[in-house]
Structure to design on (278 residues):
């Protein structure tokens, strides 16, 4: 069978047993689809470039797409741009918005830690859109994802500060996923799935007109959603008849263990260096 897609995790919270690679709280993946190459997210530091070198991946000239504006998905942009050279950077218009976490009591800045002008000087050609779009044949960014199920509400711990100083729950409108349209169905890559894993998969079906979800990889944010959300998510996942489930990053060990136990024939332990070829 002709190989259509190659997915490699460059940044994740876990590095597994691969010698020399670096783990960090964050996410980045390298993708090949036909002759097209793409980086999805940048991780938090220089880990993506270090790990790409150790995994034998040449990053020169590879465009970048961002799932959303949190530091653990964007902080590595400057290191990547130093390696890629001038490239398009696909993102949502709110990717540079200020946002905060209040999980530890006081507000903590968790937005992109880099200045747009500095990144543009390094060669980032930002291409911003709120809409779903096909950036290469068969390669889609979802754009804004409407929440389609009740159990995928925004996290109360992630907030923004309004112009009048009020603290409000952040809907994280810039959250988006990547969709690859393969012959047998869709392969969906999640950054953090702040809009909800199930809502994202339903949106991917609507955007592409393809019903079959073949595989899902990346951050699911199930590590922060509680037991009921995890239970509802697993029940919904069964209806998609997914063949490959490779969660990582913000999924957390407890949720990943539950997914592995409930969906053992589909689960892949995803960490730095994980490769999926279809």
């Amino acid at each position: 069978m002709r190989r259509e897609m190659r997915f490699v995790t460059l940044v994740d919270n876990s590095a597994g047993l691969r010698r020399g690679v670096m783990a960090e709280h964050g996410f980045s993946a390298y993708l090949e689809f036909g002759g097209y190459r793409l980086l999805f997210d940048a991780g938090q530091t220089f880990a993506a470039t270090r790990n790409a070198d150790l995994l034998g991946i040449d990053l020169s000239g590879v465009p970048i797409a961002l799932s959303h504006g949190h530091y653990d998905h964007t902080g590595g942009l400057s290191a990547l741009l130093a390696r890629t050279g001038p490239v398009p950077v696909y993102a949502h218009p709110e990717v540079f918005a200020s946002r905060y976490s209040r999980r530890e009591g006081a507000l903590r800045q968790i937005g992109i830690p880099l200045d747009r002008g500095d990144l543009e000087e390094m060669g980032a050609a930002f291409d911003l859109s709120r809409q779903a779009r096909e950036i290469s044949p068969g390669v889609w960014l979802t754009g804004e994802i409407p929440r389609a199920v009740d159990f995928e509400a925004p996290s109360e711990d992630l907030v923004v500060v309004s112009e009048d100083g009020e603290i409000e729950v952040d809907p994280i409108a810039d959250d988006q996923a990547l969709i690859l349209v393969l012959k047998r169905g869709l392969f969906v890559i999640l950054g953090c799935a702040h809009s909800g894993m199930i809502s994202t998969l339903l949106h991917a079906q609507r955007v592409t007109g393809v019903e079959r979800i073949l595989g899902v990889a990346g951050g699911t944010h199930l590590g922060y959603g509680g037991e009921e959300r995890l239970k509802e998510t697993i029940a919904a996942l069964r209806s998609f008849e997914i063949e490959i489930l490779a969660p990582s990053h913000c999924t957390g060990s407890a949720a990943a263990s539950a997914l592995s136990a409930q969906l053992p024939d589909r689960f892949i332990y995803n960490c730095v260096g994980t490769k999926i070829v279809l």
